[in-house]
Write a structure and sequence with these properties.
The protein has about 80 residues and is mainly α. It has 1 helix and no strands. The protein is about 95% helix and about 0% strand.
Length: about 80
Amino acid sequence: MSDAVIVALITGLCAVIGQWLIVRNQSAKDAYDRGQRDKKLDDDIKNLSERVEEHNQYAKMFANLSSKIELMAQDIRYIKEGKI
């Protein structure tokens, strides 16, 4: 083989290996970035779930208070009317 062919083969092989290394490193970086995004999304969903649960507890307490206020308002009306 001539020297030019050997140099071309070596250059081509080095280019292919270089591109393979670049793609492999980028793939690993992308996988790490996806993992970090997934972790952040999981944390955000957990925080939102906790806030929804807290809101639901307040909604239940408000419903109880609302019924108690209605009973107190009814008692006040009875007192004003002199029925008690």
